[in-house]
Structure prediction request, 320 residues.
Amino acid sequence: MSQQSGSEPVNSCKVVYASRVAESFVEQLKELVKRFEPVPTLVGFLANTDPAARMYAEWTEKTCKEIGFAFELREVSKDDLEDAIVEANLDKNVNGMMIYFPVFGNRQDQYLQQVVSPEKDVEGLCHKYVMNMYHNIRHLDEEKTKKSILPCTPLAIVKILEYLGVYNRIINYGNRLYGKTITVVNRSEIVGRPLAALLANDGAKVYSVDINNVQLFTRGAGIRSRKHDVTETNLKIEDVAPMSDVIICGVPSPKYKFPSHLVRDGAVCICFSSDKNFDAPSLKEHAGIYVPSIGKVTIAMLLRNLIRLTSYQRNNPIDV
Prediction:
């Protein structure tokens, strides 16, 4: 904590908001969408009563309209959702679709992810895209004209880290997190595990924390492996957090607060849960940068994926 002469003590933590990070992507999207006639159409399926899911849907619709995309929210019952997805798969007027999870809150949600056609999966959650991500395969074709689709929330966090300068641009592309240690508190199949894999594939040593244990995601000594490996550890969050350059939290519980005293001085802290996982006042005594939410960047990544998929559907791949 620093002291300014003649004033109250102030901390040196910089708060960075998602809206600022998203600005350049939004401007890029506004230009890209002008290339399409008709404009890409995104369909969102809402089959739950979760207020956070409805808020996300409203943000998505608002952003789509502001940028120039077409958006349609389809509210259906849980039992009718699968049929509605299949119908949208066959509808040539639908370029991309997403599901506002949770729906059933169990393995059936993972099944629904696979019902969405890969050609229209803007969330990047189908098996093909997930397999490519875990195996560090970055293109869909041998000519490398079509990039694989990455899950939009983990991708948003990657873009935030790039914006903050955590990625080292001097190092070769694909290795730019080499030397960084990152802790991710969440190992869900939708965000936490894919995020750990993405960061490890880019060269970081990633400690993935959930309620049961801590796993290590890494490409090995000197990042010699092409893709990451996962090993079990006997470590606890108290062991890994203090050595981390970056701490990323996404615990879906209003009761959870990351212990601020474990944050290394100057560390970057990012929250991707709608529940605030950090206690801001105490966190700012340690963290160098705090990103309290990522929603607007996530939506921007969703629309970048939509641009890519629409360009693939129309046989004119765009690299964004």
Observations:
- The radius of gyration is 20 Å.
- The domain at 154-295 is CATH 3.40.50.720 (Rossmann fold).
- DSSP finds ten helices and eleven strands in the chain.
- Residues 1-6 have pLDDT under 50 and may be disordered.
